[in-house]
Design brief:
CATH superfamily: SUI1-like domain
Helix content: 10-25%
Distance between the termini: 42 Å
CATH class: Alpha Beta
Strand order of the largest sheet: 3-4-2-1-5
Largest sheet: 5 strands, mixed
CATH topology: Translation Initiation Factor Eif1
Number of helices: 2
Shape: elongated
Number of domains: 1
Structural class: alpha+beta
Number of strands: 5
Length: 111
């Protein structure tokens, strides 16, 4: 996709010195021990149970890498959407253990 299609807010300016803001500016990933990840359980995803990890601060590539670690260790599928990791199945305790071993702080949210 062309860079001008990712302009944030303003599509065109007649000012030749105007500096556009772009949507693709990702926040740098902070250290694992400085992150607090919220681990939710959701029993309403197409009738199946899923674990949702929210609160990750960093680039999309680092988020995808973390999701791969979790999916591999749990032996299940999942996805990354809207800065959230969705893991199929009821593996909340195992996921929290894996995240703690990786150096992340976790908080259990919900039942």
């Amino acid at each position: 996709m062309a860079k001008k299609n990712k302009r944030k807010g303003i599509m065109y300016s007649t000012n030749p010195d105007y500096d556009y803001e772009y949507e693709d500016s990702e926040q740098e990933t902070i250290l694992n021990d400085m992150q607090l990840l919220h681990v939710h359980i959701d029993k309403h995803r197409a009738g199946k149970t899923a674990v949702i990890i929210k609160g990750f601060i960093g680039t999309k590539n680092d988020l995808i890498s973390l999701s791969k670690i979790l999916k591999k260790n749990c032996g299940v599928g999942g996805s990354v959407k809207n800065q959230e990791i969705i893991i199929q199945g009821n593996f909340r305790e195992k996921i929290m253990t894996i995240l703690n071993n990786e150096g992340y702080k976790t908080k259990r949210i919900g039942g």
